[in-house]
Amino acid sequence: MEEKSGIVVKVTENYIVLIMPDGSFKNVKRSKTQVPLIGERFTYKEERHSVFYSRWTAVAAVACMIVLAVFTYRLLMTSNSQPAYLVALDINPSVEVYVDKNLVTTNVTALNEDGKKLTDMAQYKGKKLLDTIDLIVEQSISKGYLKQNQKGLIKITVIPMQKNNSLNGDNIKTSIQKLLLKDNIQAEIEIGFDTRDIIEEAHQSGLSINRYILYKSLRDKGISITVEESRNMPLENLQNYEATRNNDSNGRITPQPNTSGGEKSGKPDNSGEQGYKDGNAHKKNQNGEMPDKRSIPETLKGSDTQKSKTNNNGETGMADKMGTEKSEISSSSQPVQTNNSADGSGKTENSNNSISTPVTKDIQSDGSSDSKPNQTNQNGSSIESPNKDGSQPSSSGSTGPQSGQGSGSSNTGKKR
Amino acid sequence: MENSHIEQSIQSAKNGNELERQQIINRNKPYIINVVSHICRKFISWSDEEASIGLLAFNHAIDTFEASKGRSFLSYSYCLINRALVNYFRKNKYHNQNLSLDYVFNEESSLTGEEINKSIQIYREKVESSELVEEILELDRILNDYGIKFEELERASPKHKDTRELIYRIVHKYINDTELVQELIEKKRFPATAFARKTGYPLKTIEKHRKYLITMIIISLHPEWVHLSSYVKIK
Lengths: 416, 235
Known about the structure:
The complex is a heterodimer of chains A (416) and B (235). Chain A is of the alpha+beta class and 416 residues long. Chain A has 19 helices and nine strands. Chain A has a five-stranded mixed sheet with strand order 7-6-5-8-9, with helices on both faces. In chain A, helix 14 crosses helix 15 (345-366). In chain B, helix 2 packs across helix 3. The model of chain B is unreliable at 100-109 (pLDDT under 50). Chain B starts with a helix and ends in a 6-residue tail after the last helix. Classes of the chains: A alpha+beta (416), B mainly alpha (235).
């Protein structure tokens, strides 16, 4: 507010027109009883809003501000509602917690039935991330997913959805640990970080993110495991999957690197056929030898995954010859199966396959020169080996790594 | 010189020159309405009764003005208008506490010298000078021919120092060109395009401040307006 004075040149109904000392003219709002004489010196207080020279500019400015406000509001809202982090939590309940950049929970989704029991129970929205996680853990305890007498496993993966990455996993860990201590529960807490890509991959495979990460690492290590298995297996088992297998099949794994190396370098053509023949022979022998010791549930379990495996192998773009070989395998083995067990078709297939696994072992022990045949056999065997592993890790663990190699390679081939 | 001109025209009106009288009244209409409004402390339009009372009082001032008494015609007419209105308020029991009701006069009685002097003194205290008022009224009248009203000039006034100085330069340039001045006075319009082409000043600025430029040029062309000219710092 600045006092200014000028000479009155005119008084209109609404304004007093002044000529200012600098020669400019000024219209000053006139109050009702204010009628200065022409030629009178008139002092007024300069008002701030004189920026708006006309009503229209004022209206336009206000409109602009409204539009701007709406836009910024929208922008803020969208940026807020877009999760900044995805915190995937696996105890047994698999839950995904989405939080915004202020670490306030925006959404919680359950990935399995156990998870649904939790998310139905609590309203997480608007809570801080740590509180949400605490709540979930508490619920898991009260629902008996984490028990005092049993060492549990809590796996957490933090995935930044935007470019920022300032979320501190330690906070989460200590917070959970406190909770666990309170209830005297022992559990391993693992916190990892990953990238956005994993979300889609995991969701496509139908696994929770932590399970998918385990699954992937297992596959990368060449251990054959199916999506189905990794979904249904208790989390701890999945976590320790590799270890248990390693323990079981220590001796047999060692030759594996050789064979894998052979796979890469060796040409499948002649040796493959030869090896295959050998394998076939072995198979036949084995079929004959193999009694019906194999437990039925085991075989049943594997049946569907096994099929998918064979399909995969067919698809994986092995050389055409290999494809035919495989079909030969199946055709050749088929009769054997029928001979073997007339109980049921599902079982027979399995038994057939399971029979083939010893074959591979034999071949390996024979010599590493015939790398390809091994592989073909493995392909045959790998189909069912994981199934066995899932149900009966100890007995079939030995075949696992070998077959895993085959399926692993096929897996990579698939990716390409 | 101007004063004597006014006095002459008043004298001529006094002697029965109705046209001259009409001209004086017309020229001073803005003044009359302003004084009436000022005394009434509210805006008065020509349709109001107060305005016609003021007009009658002004007309009376023409008849009774005596230049020899050493006072300006405007202050004298102010005095008469004031008196007439006060009488009018009394008659109509027009109550306004803020009104100055110092003077009690009979409408027919002539003013005493004391009364007149007192009224003129008040007027002088308020107004910087009656010459300035005359200048303003004269400017208003001339601008009216150009279709310019005072209240429109704020918009056309330069808001920044740079623009103001530019406008002063333009005015200076313009009044030194007799051809342009001739055109302005005769055609009552500002040859913006031609001027811009001739001088190279930005047409946009000229267009935006056209009315203000005309006002400043007119003031500059009347150096006899001593008071108003002080507001135009040309050169």
